[in-house]
Write a structure and sequence with these properties.
The protein is built from six helices and no strands. By secondary structure, the protein is mostly helical.
């Protein structure tokens, strides 16, 4: 089982190693957008939307890796003071009854929109924008799958540590 968890970890780690470069591209594109607008008086809706696409991709596909590193938003006011056994139980409850069901619901309810978007190859958000909203919407199920996989990997390890305090 630990091998499965390691494979899932490597999927999210590999994804993160690819999408982390999007942060650099985002900064560079935004720099050139500002330079073009204020220095040369040139503006591009597609360039502005590309920053939105990169930002969405970075955060949606990097979420599983964030969960792997335990760097997600968490309210640690009480959690940090609990014994390890109690923290483990809270984590198991959170993954089984909060995270996995919410990701499954998001995947289930967003799928018709994603499918329809692909069916019509949904166009740009704005006139002159990027002709690929269907790709942007495809990030939703990918996000859900990567987070659910990582949650399963974490649960495998949490249940494997039953004898631990």
């Amino acid at each position: 089982m630990d091998r499965i968890a390691s494979v899932i970890d490597s999927i999210n780690t590999g994804t993160a190693h690819v999408v982390r470069w999007l942060a650099l591209f985002m900064v560079l594109i935004q720099f050139f957008i500002v330079l073009g607008r204020y220095v040369f008086g040139v503006n591009s809706i597609a360039a502005q939307e590309s920053v939105l696409y990169l930002h969405a991709t970075l955060f949606m596909l990097g979420a599983g890796y964030t969960l792997l590193l335990d760097k997600h938003v968490r309210v640690d006011v009480f959690f940090a003071g609990f014994p390890a056994k109690t923290r483990r139980r809270i984590d198991i409850f959170g993954h089984l009854f909060l995270l996995l069901p919410s990701m499954f619901a998001l995947l289930y309810w967003s799928w018709p929109s994603v499918r329809n978007s692909w069916k019509i190859l949904e166009g740009p958000i704005s006139v002159g924008g990027i002709e690929a909203v269907f790709l942007l919407k495809s990030l939703i199920p990918l996000f859900c799958i990567l987070v659910m996989l990582q949650s399963i990997a974490i649960l495998i390890r949490l249940f494997g540590d039953r004898g631990q305090p």
